[in-house]
Amino acid sequence: MRIHSDANRFRELLEKQNEEVVSVALFGQPGAGKSSLINKIVGAKVANIGVETDKTVEEGHYQHNGLRLVDLPGYGTAKFPKDGYKEKFELKAFDLFLCVTSGKFHQADTELFQALEAMDKICIFVVNKYDELWEEDIPVEKLVERKRADIAKQLGKDVSVIFTSCRNSYGLAELNEAILVNLNAAKRDRWLRGSQAHSLKFLKEKREASERYVVVAAAASAANGLNPIPGTDIAIDLTVLVNLFGQLRENFGLSDSALSAMKESMVPIISMLASNLIRHSVLEGIIILLKQFMGKQALKTVSKYVPLVGQAVAASAGFAITYSVGNNYLNDCYNLAERILEDSLKS
User: Fold this and answer.
1) 346 exposure class (CB count in 10 Å sphere: 0-12, 13-18, 19+)
2) What is the pLDDT of residues 137-189, one digit of tens each?
3) Confidence (pTM)
4) What homologous superfamily does CATH list for 21-188?
């Protein structure tokens, strides 16, 4: 049967999406808040605040949910001279760069930018600690203009500059979008799924990327049918669904500890969504969910995925069920993450 011949193809496609990595390097002077920015980007405390990477490089590497962020050490220092710097830190391997500053823009950052420009690398300029911009009798708009002018003067050209604050999340949504538009389609989906949403617009884009991932996982589960669904003649790969649900929770920043805390929330909808996500995260819960979707009208809506997964897979009952339960779990993740984000944007 054709569906079985597709099993390897979808397993490989799913593995390729899981192995996709977006590599971003940050550079700038110590104290600019690069570690805090990394934590805000990934939505987890992966970087130690206050680590000076001009003294060590090992502590400047962070990997989280398909994102690889590297806090580069000082360019042109005694320990890391300009000669051989590009090769030592494999600058060609990065998808893009963030030049992060908070004080005066330094010549070393200009020189590294020029080296990256010669390599045709994308560099986004970030002025961090926007909340600390202050000077007596000078409006913040004037200080922003002064920062932009200083960077342009150092570089000898006008460039786009994004102002951010890790304290109140100012500008992080703009930074996310700036990174997104400079990635190819596969890398863009990985960035959407892996980085923290700081706007409702980005959260919706994250949902769309996650739905594309659900389609591939559902096809892989259906085509690799190993486990009969009790009471039916339909077999699917339950391991794929377990991993899918775990990935969806991670995409939306819903850790086990966070869900356990939200389960006790006094807000009924938050408690209900958290409870559902916990209940259906284990094998027994997934089987219960599969049975709930047997024969539902929703199972008739998957024909639009024929161009993506092929006629044989899309027409199978296994794909209809796995896609439906996967999308249902995705909706719960999204709805909970949306409420959390809306509350944070109000504060």
Assistant:
1) exposed
2) 999 999 999 999 999 999 999 999 999 999 999 999 999 999 999 999 999 99
3) 0.90
4) P-loop containing nucleotide triphosphate hydrolases (3.40.50.300)
